[in-house]
Amino acid sequence: MTEPSEALSEAHFEPFVHLAGLDDDQALIAWGGFWFVPFADGKGMRLVDDEELPQVDAGRHDSIGVRSKAYGHAVVEALDADGAVVVRAETDDTNHAWLRGLEADTEYRYRIQVDGEPWAEGERMRWHRLDEQRGELRPAGRGYDLRFRTFPDRESDAGLTFCAIGDYGIGIQGAADDCDRQLETARAMEETIEHHDVRLVITLGDNIYHEEDEKVGGTGSEDDDWFFSFYEPYRWLISRVPVFPTVGNHDAAETEDSDDRDQLDDNHFLDLRFAPEVEEGRASLDPGLFYRLAYSRRVQLLCIDTSKAAELETERFFANGKHLDFVTASLTDGPDGTDDGGSRWRIPFCHHPPFCAGPKHGNDEDMVDLLVPLFEQHGVRLVLSGHEHNFQYASHNDVHYIVSGAGGKLRDGRPDGFDGAHTRAWAAAGHFLLVEIDGARATIWPLSGVDPDGTLHCIDAAQPDGTPFALPIEASL
Q: What's the whole-model pTM score?
């Protein structure tokens, strides 16, 4: 075993738990953690880099995620309302396990033991930012509440309440304004999940922003880069509800030197979750990330990869033949491609918006030419995207388009392309979306905060002429 340096010998290990996947009859439970050491001058702590991990745990190169070396013999159990163990899984080789054979639309508690010891039990430590480069661990005043509720049967008529967040990957260590915004948004999402029966979270891309020259360091291609951007700010949230991501330009090599798709796969267990869905016609991968989530027979979410496709002959992933066929099939019912007359909510979510008023980005002509006609033809009523770091709402040919790209970063300049983007409202405000699907009606709340009692706070939106715009947004089939 490699002997640790003096500083690394004082490393504190903080365990984490991740509900990495969920369906109507199974749950994917994952665990891992991070090491922290004090600075030599005693002022604050730093996160141990992935390259240093062998010095604190021999043979380790990843601390969490699908590739991470096993921490030991693990037992994962799901418990019913009476506290009885109903499903049990064991593994010696991974830090994740599927709990299969669960009942639909049922709440379970779960627990993890590694080498006979409870994992992440008791009060945990939280990261407290001291300055752009330093922080420290302080008692969180809480521990994990390990429970989840399975999705309803796919043939049920259940509605769905979910959150959506875009461009949130700036992290909580670095420039103060962006960090504070992401942390406040994360805390508000926690309260929303607690009080409003939120069943899942979707991301609208740009899950990680790290670049080599940032003061935080890293590129987004290692686990330590994801601590500040994902695991710590959403710690309590991701132990209770699953996250369904899409790919943004900052997650790929088109904007940064580093292509983070491999790490996105690792931390979101993409291949493990969606590769089995390819044969069933519910996903299209390799390369690109396209999948559909049939929450019930009335609600289907559709992830569309709108990033550039350097690996393919087409410029964009969605223009590739097999991916375009998948999108088309996902917007219809049945193998014969017949529509259901608009009785199902089909909600595409992606990073780049078809319609955008700016101030930095405009309309995406490739999407307008290729995808928008499909949306209109097959009864889509709501499309969610990010990319522009503000809030925008457009309506065109009976389709509602929401841009929600201010989960961390914020662009406060006034857009100037309202007419061409069919814009009805906008706001320069950090936020996330709460979407409630109830029968033939959808209600979309762009939220800046949520009180501990569950009271929602919408952002202040304006129409292009500057007059106030009444929120929330409502759409119907």
A: 0.94
